[in-house]
From TrEMBL, chain A:
A Gene Ontology BP annotation from the UniProt entry: glycine betaine transport
SUPFAM superfamilies attached to this UniProt entry: MetI-like
The protein's name in its UniProt record: ABC transporter permease subunit
Ranges for domain ABC transmembrane type-1: 90-269
Family from the record: Belongs to the binding-protein-dependent transport system permease family.
Membrane topology (UniProt): Multi-pass membrane protein
InterPro entries noted in UniProt: MetI-like, MetI-like_sf
Pfam family, one: BPD_transp_1
Any Gene Ontology CC annotation: ATP-binding cassette (ABC) transporter complex
GO molecular function, one term: amine transmembrane transporter activity
Entries under PROSITE patterns matching the protein: ABC_TM1
TrEMBL record, chain B:
Parts forming coiled coils: none
Chain ranges of the ABC transporter domain: 36-272
Any GO molecular function: ABC-type quaternary ammonium compound transporting activity
Full protein name: Quaternary amine transport ATP-binding protein
SUPFAM superfamilies in UniProt: CBS-domain pair, P-loop containing nucleoside triphosphate hydrolases
Keyword Nucleotide-binding: yes
Catalysed reactions, as listed in the record: a quaternary ammonium(out) + ATP + H2O = a quaternary ammonium(in) + ADP + phosphate + H(+)
Similarity-based family: Belongs to the ABC transporter superfamily.
GO cellular component, one term: plasma membrane
Length: 276, 354
């Protein structure tokens, strides 16, 4: 039995080595692509000074939540992050979350739609999603670090994997749960299959899809912090290095900044979901 | 409208069956091969027969009611008419074309242009305004925005909702929502409208109002309609002809008067027992034929043969006469006495013989 396990482990190691030796150009390409996206978003966020970004965030919160109070609270929260001396880290975490969520949603929304329309695909996906969600999230860092190395690209890949399941599930659910009387209305009116999707199924699915987007974003936040271990940069890395040097005060500062950022993004996307 | 048009059959539903269940193909073979009935099919194959050997014809310009209690198969039957449900057996033609033989595009075209449908649940799209809902059928057909909105406005005007165009369905009462449902069906200008218990969820006052408006509108626009209901009063108020369904079988088809005066079986008789005859029963069904009348008919007040009991009571109480002579095409055909009227009100089919 022990021999068998050793043999299996060696096979896995060999496979990884083979991949890094022979498919390095693919992983270099992926890495360049991911880091390019991350750098681009971060460059945008750091383009303006902190007060401009804070006010902009406040305006968005005000518009979306339709409450001036929410706007002011957002501005204050962002300024607080700057005041703690964590502005660059906060923006870098935000860039990671946005980059990972964009990739995760670009994959999971179409996948969710297909799963909603095709029960067999839905059944095939279910165990995969279950697996992703039951594994401890830092597991995904290991193969990623082997293939992509230390840095934000690894953090992004692991975050994308963790962020996908809620969006896939809730999108599929929303598409599947169109009230039957509206399906009947569509048929009786003579809609084409494309019209059935765009004019009937999709509008009813929007709230569920937006809830999925919100959940994915929250998962991405959690993972981005864990990914501090692999040198993701941002608040996660700040916390990780603070823990290693037992700098408790610093780690609490960074934790507060994470909570602030999470709350702002959560409330804004939740209001977006409700607005529809 | 010429005579031939008036009797043109728009929907012809010939011996249609619908069998639900996993073993329905076997059950169908048993029905065609061995002539099994509903009960045997359920026992042998575990299949439920939703509609059993139903034949109806809907003619141009008429409102055809299908009346039955829940589980009688009426909702299944109406869905067989536009192939929302595929028939297991039998044939349905719409304007002479077999809808089972249509390909997907032709079927869509037929549903979009020729058969509108109004649902009990109304099914207004909540994200759209009243106007956008009413224009939905034309939107699906690819009609431009201005044109479809104009058509939708005309339809909303007809149902009295001209001022509510920009509102959302959730802002409307149940009755108003169903008016929008009707307007949506009218906007595409179909010849036939299928009404699936449209007024069942409304309160009685609104329901009566909508029944009258619906009948008036359908007649004014020259549409034909198939109207499903579980309420015999509603069927009588709205329908030119009524089919009564029970357990998937059409028990009787006829005008309200035919059904009330000559119920096909005890089930129908029990159903019509509580129905007021005042406006249903006409002079010609309760009169004593002139040949059997002993007295002098010529001196009596006159009425036409399709005057109803309510009108006859009015005439008798006003003139003080005990009997009224019934006139048809300018000559006397019979006499209605107070005795005949009383029997007619009670609904005895053989009032004439009494």
């Amino acid at each position: 039995m022990e021999n068998f396990v050793t043999a299996f482990d060696m096979a896995v190691d060999d496979a990884l080595f083979w991949l890094t030796d022979h498919a390095a150009f693919i992983f270099d390409g992926i890495r360049a692509l991911l880091e390019g996206l991350y750098d681009g978003i971060l460059w945008l966020l750091m383009l303006a000074p902190f007060h401009v970004v804070s006010v902009l965030a406040g305006l968005i919160a005000w518009r979306v939540m339709k409450s001036p109070g929410a706007g002011i609270a957002t501005v204050l929260a962002m300024v607080f992050c700057w005041w703690m001396g964590l502005w660059a880290e906060t923006m870098s975490t935000l860039a990671l979350v946005v980059a990972a969520s964009v990739i995760a949603l670009a994959i999971s929304l179409p996948l969710g739609v297909l799963a909603g329309l095709m029960p067999r695909l839905d059944r095939a996906l279910a165990p995969v999603l279950d697996l992703i969600q039951t594994m401890p999230p830092y597991i995904y860092l290991l193969p990623a670090i082997a293939l992509l190395g230390y840095g934000p690209a690894t953090a992004l890949i692991a975050t994308v994997i963790v962020a996908m399941p809620p969006a896939v599930r809730l999108t599929a659910l929303g598409i599947r749960r169109t009230p039957t009387e509206f399906i009947e209305l569509g048929h009786a009116t003579g809609v084409t299959p494309a019209q059935m999707f765009l004019k009937i199924r999709l509008p009813f699915a929007v709230p569920s899809i937006m809830a999925g987007v919100n959940q994915s974003l929250m998962m991405a936040f959690g993972m981005v912090v864990i990914a501090g271990i692999v040198g993701s940069g941002g608040l996660g890395e700040t916390i990780f290095s603070a823990i290693r040097t037992l700098d408790i005060a610093k780690s609490i500062d960074a934790a507060i900044a994470i909570v602030v950022l999470t709350m702002v993004l959560d409330r804004v996307t939740q209001s977006l979901a409700r607005a529809k | 409208m010429t005579h031939s048009e008036a009797t043109e059959v728009l929907i012809d539903c010939q011996s249609v069956w619908k069998v639900f269940g996993d073993r329905s193909p076997e059950a169908i073979r048993a029905i065609t091969g061995r002539g099994l009935g509903k009960q045997e099919v359920l026992k042998e194959f575990g299949c439920v027969v939703g509609v059993s050997d139903a034949s109806i014809q809907v003619r141009r310009g008429e409102i055809f009611c299908i009346m039955g209690l829940s589980g009688s198969g009426k909702s299944t039957l109406i869905r067989l008419l536009n192939r929302l449900i595929e028939p297991s057996l039998g044939k349905v033609t719409v304007k002479g074309r077999d809808i089972a033989a249509m390909d997907a595009a032709t079927l869509r075209e037929t549903r979009a242009r020729h058969i509108g449908m109004v649902f009990q649940s109304v099914a207004l799209l909540p994200q759209r305004t009243v106007l956008e809902n009413a224009a939905f059928g034309l939107e699906v057909q690819g009609v431009g925005k201005d044109e479809r909105n104009r058509a939708a406005e005309v339809a909303l005007d007809k149902v009295g909702l001209a001022d509510w165009k920009a509102r959302y369905p959730s802002e409307l009462s149940g009755g108003m929502q169903q008016r929008v449902g009707l307007a949506r069906a009218l906007t595409s200008d179909p010849e036939i409208i299928l009404m699936d218990e449209p007024f069942s969820a409304l309160d009685p006052l609104i329901r009566r109002q909508l029944q009258d408006e619906f009948r008036q509108l359908t007649k004014d626009l020259g549409k034909s309609a198939v109207f499903i209901t579980h309420d015999l009063d509603e069927a009588i108020r709205i329908g030119d002809r009524i089919a009564i369904m029970k357990d998937g079988v059409i028990i009787q088809t006829g005008t309200a008067e035919e059904i009330v005066m000559n119920p096909a079986d005890q089930y129908v008789a029990d159903f019509v027992a509580g129905i007021s005859r005042l406006h249903l029963v006409k002079a010609h069904s309760v009169m004593v034929p002139l040949a059997e009348w002993q007295g002098d008919a010529a001196s009596l007040p006159r009425c036409s043969s399709d005057a109803d009991i309510d009108a006859l009571i009015g005439q008798i109480t006003e003139t003080g006469s005990d009997a009224v002579a019934v006139e048809e095409d300018g000559r006397l055909v019979g006499v209605v006495t107070i005795r005949n009227l009383l029997l007619g009100v009670r609904g005895d089919a053989d009032a004439r013989a009494a």
